[in-house]
Amino acid sequence: MDELLSIGINALYLLALINPISKVSILTALMPEKEDPRFRSLTNRSSFVAVCILFGAMIVGDFLLRSVFRVDLYSLRLAGGVVVFWVGLNALRRGVFFENDAHTGIADMALVPLACPMIAGPATIAACIGLRVQYGVFNSTMSMLLALALNHVIMLLSPFIGRMLNRSHILSALIRITGLIVMTIGTQMALDGLAGWLKAQQL
């Protein structure tokens, strides 16, 4: 029971970092109709690539950081926190998480920006590595898969959700509120990274 509770809590934490509302806004703008034959392919491909990136980060991320790049986990947390803070600040100020480039194809967007960095971004990668170190492979993998499954369902429903929110004129306000939450998460990640650095200096 404790293991299941831990997986659920960690999955919700990862889901907050993944930030499904950002996917709703961009997918609604890209494909307002769910019946578009490219829609399911786009969402499936982006989720699959994100799973591969995050699972790979959990398995070999800590080893690569420490042994290859000579980077400690607290540095990744600090850098990821700064990036997440900036993304949240941009959403809070401008009401958008991402602005689409008119020259970018629909198929290309499954990889960039949807899979990376909007799903498997610096903060999510850092969190997955941290969960792997703290809770082990099974817990962190199940948490990651559950979070991505929930995000995938929301992505599939994004045209309906987006139309409903636009009809109520609350999508922009919801993006700004979510941006504030994302900023808070980014700040906490940066502070955790800074605390880890300070602790390492005292050893």
CA radius of gyration is 17 Å
Structural class: mainly alpha
Low-pLDDT stretches: none
Number of strands: 0
Walk me through what this model shows:
Helix content is 85%, strand content 0%. With 203 residues, the protein is mostly helical. It has one domain (2-202). α3 (37-68) crosses α5. It is globular. The model has no long low-confidence stretch (mean pLDDT 84).
Summarize this entry quickly.
The protein has 203 residues and is mainly α. The chain has helices at residues 2-18, 20-30, 37-68, 73-94, 106-119, 122-135, 137-156, 158-167, 171-202.
Notable features of this structure?
85% helix, mainly alpha, 9 helices, 203 residues, 0% strand, single chain
Describe the secondary structure blueprint for this structure.
Blueprint: H1 2-18, H2 20-30, H3 37-68, H4 73-94, H5 106-119, H6 122-135, H7 137-156, H8 158-167, H9 171-202
Helix pairs in contact: 1-6, 1-7, 2-5, 2-8, 3-5, 3-6, 3-7, 4-6, 4-9, 6-7
